[in-house]
Write a structure and sequence with these properties.
The protein is mainly alpha-helical. It contains nine helices and three strands, in the order H-H-H-H-H-H-H-E-E-H-E-H.
Length: 306
């Protein structure tokens, strides 16, 4: 619950921050007339919408499980990330629409030094905020925060490219570099949008957790399954901040239900120590059943002892 509140607070702070950065970039465009700075500002306008969507998504995803959503609402964050990816692509297309006519009729910038200074300040704010969001997204396993941070990071890269390109345009006197740079910015944004969409769709398809995390779960099972005969059909998936673990536990056919239950409790505690908050489903079956899927050998008590 505490982690959910922190994620929501971060998502909420993203709204005024993105509005402020967008305002700075649009001021930089207004004082210069630069198409490249306009494209940078348009990308930031998407950040505003994305921040609002991310806040709505993390708020909904934090809701507890209910009768109609017994596994929780975690996947709402993936839907938010998909929408953000689509918005990024739309922003890129709008930038191309603005830039192409300017390629044919380039115009020199006005007050370039002031405009670049304002845009640089906006880029610094974005860089700090992107770091905070990406770090928090990984720590709290929030796809919405991570996607928002990655998008803002792509905005920072865009801003750096725009600043370098416009400095070159000013030094060389080639005004056409301004709209050409805007087109390059649009291509970069398209690539970032594709990455966000692909990652989010992957999450919606119940992708398994990271290999190193699966290894930690296997180690917990192997060292805390004393009394059982092994585990098979191990499956994992991640939905937002939630981790789901499912497997079949094989026990001797004559083992009492109480003993099998004790083994399950011991394994669940060990798995949750490796994966805090994991939701675990264990199917107990007798040794006469045929094993299938991914198997885990349980270390006998004599081997597990130091």
């Amino acid at each position: 619950m505490e982690n959910s509140d922190r994620v929501k607070r971060l998502a909420l702070w993203g709204i005024p921050l993105s509005l402020g950065v967008m305002g700075l970039k649009l001021v930089a465009w207004w004082v210069t007339g630069s198409v490249a700075l306009l494209s940078d500002g348009m990308e930031s306008s998407v950040n505003v919408i994305a921040a609002i969507v991310a806040f709505a998504a993390v708020s909904y995803a934090a809701r507890p499980a209910d009768k109609t959503h017994p596994f929780g609402h975690h996947k709402a964050e993936y839907l938010s990330a998909v929408l953000e990816g689509v918005l990024i692509v739309v922003a890129a297309l709008l930038i191309v629409k603005e830039a192409l006519p300017a390629v044919l009729a380039p115009a020199p910038m006005e007050a370039p030094a002031l405009g670049l200074a304002i845009n640089f300040a906006a880029g610094v704010i974005n860089a700090v905020w992107a770091y905070v969001l990406i770090r928090a997204g990984r720590r709290y396993r929030s796809p919405a925060l991570a996607a928002d941070g990655q998008h803002i990071l792509s905005d920072v890269v865009t801003s750096i490219g725009v600043l370098v390109g416009l400095v070159l345009a000013i030094l060389t006197g080639y005004a056409v570099l301004d709209p050409l740079l805007a087109v390059l910015v649009a291509l970069h944004i398209l690539y970032q949008g594709w990455k966000v969409i692909a990652h989010s769709v992957d999450g919606l398809m119940d992708h398994a957790i990271a290999p190193e995390e699966v290894d930690a779960i296997k180690a917990a099972i192997a060292t805390h399954g004393n009394g059982s005969l092994g585990v098979h059909d191990l499956k994992t998936r991640r939905a937002g901040s939630a981790t789901f673990v499912d497997f079949h536990l094989v026990v001797p056919a004559r083992m009492p239900v109480g003993e099998a239950h004790e083994i399950c409790d011991r394994m669940e505690d060990a798995i949750r120590a490796a994966q805090p908050g994991a939701q675990i489903a264990i199917h107990v079956e007798p040794e006469t059943e045929k094993a299938h899927g991914e198997r885990v050998r349980v270390t006998p008590a004599t081997e597990a002892a130091p």
